[in-house]
Predict the 3D structure of the following.
Amino acid sequence: VKLLVTGRSGQVARALAGLTGSAAIICLGRPELNICDRASVDRAIALHRPEVVVNTAAYTAVDKAESEPDLAFAANAGGAGNVAAAAARAGLPVIHLSTDYVFSGDKRSPYVETDPVGPAGVYGQSKLAGEEAVAAANPDHVILRTAWVHAPWGGNFVRTMLRLAGERDTVRVIVDQHGTPTYAPHIADALLAVARYVIAARDGGAWRGVFHMTSAGETTWAGFAERVFAAARHSGLNSASVVPIATSEYPTAARRPANSRLDNTRFDAVFRAPLPAWQVGVDACVAALAAASEPSAR
Ligand SMILES: NC(=O)c1ccc[n+]([C@@H]2O[C@H](COP(=O)([O-])OP(=O)(O)OC[C@H]3O[C@@H](n4cnc5c(N)ncnc54)[C@H](OP(=O)(O)O)[C@@H]3O)[C@@H](O)[C@H]2O)c1
């Protein structure tokens, strides 16, 4: 299988680039491939001749998006549409990543794909517009909504918690937002399984459309932090105590959903590639960071 992946330095793109095995995975970022520049996407597809195109590139600064809506929409809506359209022109399927932030968070139980959307902020609105652009541009699309992504690289909650543990004994963390931390290398494994499935079932099967794809289980940001610090202690890294706080005590530019939990039943039934429990991903992430850490982090 040969994949062309948009984004090179992102959390998921780097995880895809790190996969070993028989897949050929080509990750391209700016300036070579800019999803806002249609011609650069067409050129990359013509040059590398992939079997599937995977769009991981996105504007992901959730709070900054509130003051930069044009940039967020250019990448997350226009760019996503460009990638899907370029794949369609080449007769290829596209796999596109989206987010739990397309939902308002008001539902009491995990969201299923058919639940009404209602993003609370610009980032979620731009990602929702991206889903619509992808679906309109290419009938052979798989849209995978994931959540709370972390990896041993890039900017993410695990790395922030470990940095804070080196600076203080207690960390205040939100306890009234519920969701599922999802480890980028587990997303990469699942994306490869989806790509293989799509190629094998190209002319049939129920693989088109929107799917929810997070790690198994659920927690809160405070529970996530507790797990990070437990793993840190296990690995001999700095840890801290978690002080649970309410969302109202931690104002941010963008409002975030109180309920980010996604029901993965459809994804697991179609692709049969369920992601491991979120705790497995957190422990693996902290272990990888510990293995690479300087003595000062201990
Ligand atoms: N992070 C999360 O918690 C989360 C949660 C749910 C869904 N998602 C979705 O999952 C996907 C992957 O997220 P991630 O965490 O891997 O993202 P990330 O680490 O923030 O990386 C995003 C990448 O997109 C690239 N990019 C932005 N604009 C581009 C453009 N115009 N052309 C080409 N590349 C561009 C960035 O390049 P530069 O490095 O050059 O800026 C960066 O490498 C995204 O679709 C995101 O919306 C993420």
